[in-house]
């Protein structure tokens, strides 16, 4: 999104993203077509392509928004695991269909988002008492530890979706 976007363009972009998010609540990313997105957004196909190259470009834009949402505000002092759990619980339908398995392009991207959140927290003095931050800082290889934790969370989330879809992540 450029600075020069008009309100109409911003609204159209938001409508397209919301249409994709709504579709991802019930359909896998691979099963969604540009036609589905256009039909849901009530826009013409040419309008979609004015804003996005393809549905992957749109998904990348949504992931960018999710990254901002997950990072939270600078005044949010929530422990990192609680923040991730709340985020995943609130976005379970979207994540379930956007990041369905580790072969997905978005699985890696989401794992990198988690690693970025860990790095952000490690570098912020307000979070030095967070147990995850302490674990990372005390590790002989903080980068490897962040990767390890991100993979554990993604694997755990995938397991919960596959084997315990009726249980909430917060309950687990």
TrEMBL record:
DNA-binding listed as a keyword: yes
Query: What are the recorded GO MF terms, alphabetically?
Result: DNA binding
Could you tell me what this protein is called? HTH-type dhaKLM operon transcriptional activator DhaS
Per the record, DNA-binding region residues lie at 33-52
**Could you tell me which residue ranges the HTH tetR-type domain spans?**
10-70
Q: Signal peptide position in this chain? A: none
Q: Which PROSITE patterns match?
A: HTH_TETR_2
Instruction: Keyword check for Lipid metabolism, yes or no.
Output: no
Keywords noted in UniProt: DNA-binding
Stored InterPro entries:
Homeodomain-like_sf, HTH-type_Tx_Regulator, HTH_TetR
């Amino acid at each position: 999104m450029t600075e020069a976007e008009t309100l109409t363009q911003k609204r159209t972009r938001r409508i397209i993203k919301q249409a994709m998010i709504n579709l991802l609540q019930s359909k896998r990313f691979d099963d969604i077509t540009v036609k589905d997105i256009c039909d849901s957004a009530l826009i013409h196909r040419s309008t979609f392509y004015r804003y996005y190259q393809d549905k992957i470009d749109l998904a990348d834009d949504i992931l960018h928004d999710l990254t901002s949402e997950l990072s939270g505000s600078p005044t949010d002092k929530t422990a990192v695991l609680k923040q991730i759990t709340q985020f995943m619980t609130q976005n379970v339908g979207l994540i379930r269909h956007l990041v369905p398995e580790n072969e997905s392009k978005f699985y890696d991207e989401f794992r990198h988002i988690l690693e970025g959140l860990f790095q952000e927290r490690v570098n912020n003095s307000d979070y030095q008492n967070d147990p995850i931050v302490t674990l990372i800082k005390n590790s002989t290889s903080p980068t490897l530890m962040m990767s390890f934790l991100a993979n554990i969370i993604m694997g755990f989330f995938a397991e919960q979706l596959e084997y315990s879809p009726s249980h909430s992540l917060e309950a687990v």
